């Protein structure tokens, strides 16, 4: 299985349109259906896989350009979306300079994974009924 990550809707839709035009079946990752497109690569020809990779590289660049443009419009704040239990999402506003510094050493996906891990640990602690401090 191959996973293709998109953070912006436009490049994701372009990728899905290409898959449809090529007759490639695809699905969405259950834990992140807005972001990850999953393809079973075992039945695809090598040349199609190469074209998929080239297209994905181009679309990921577009994804980043759209992100940068949006980030510029946000001014001094950045939004980070946390994935909570039961499919809920929570947008958290953070200082732009803090997020920018973190993104010098982590990818956006790694930052989201870190934030989701913290959110899940806090939810688990709160639901356990234990209180500390």
Low-confidence stretches: none
Compute the number of helices.
4
Output mean pLDDT. Answer: 82
How big a fraction of the residues is strand?
A: 15-25%
How far apart are the termini? 45 Å
Quick one: how many beta strands? Answer: 5
Class from secondary-structure proportions: alpha+beta
Largest sheet: 3 strands, antiparallel
The general outline is: globular
Number of domains: 2
What is the radius of gyration? 18 Å
In which order are the strands of the major sheet placed?
Answer: 1-3-2
Query: Helix and strand succession?
Result: EHEEHEEHH
Helix content: 40-55%
Structure, explained:
The chain has 133 residues and is of the alpha+beta class. The chain has two domains: 1-74; 76-133, no CATH class. It is 53% helix and 18% strand. The longest helix is centred in the middle third of the chain and has 29 residues, at 46-74. The radius of gyration is 18 Å and the shape is globular.
């Amino acid at each position: 299985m191959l996973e293709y990550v998109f953070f912006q809707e436009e490049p994701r839709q372009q990728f899905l349109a290409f898959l449809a035009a090529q007759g490639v079946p695809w699905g969405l990752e259950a834990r992140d259906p807005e972001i990850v497109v999953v393809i079973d690569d075992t039945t695809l020809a090598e040349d199609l896989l190469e074209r998929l990779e080239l297209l994905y590289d181009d679309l990921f660049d577009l994804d980043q350009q759209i992100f940068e443009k949006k980030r510029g419009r946000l001014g001094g704040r950045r939004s980070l979306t946390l994935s909570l239990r039961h499919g809920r999402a929570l947008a958290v506003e953070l200082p732009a300079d803090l997020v920018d510094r973190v993104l010098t050493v982590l990818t956006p996906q790694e930052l989201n994974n870190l934030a989701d891990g913290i959110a899940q640990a806090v939810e688990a602690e709160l639901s356990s009924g234990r209180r500390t401090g």
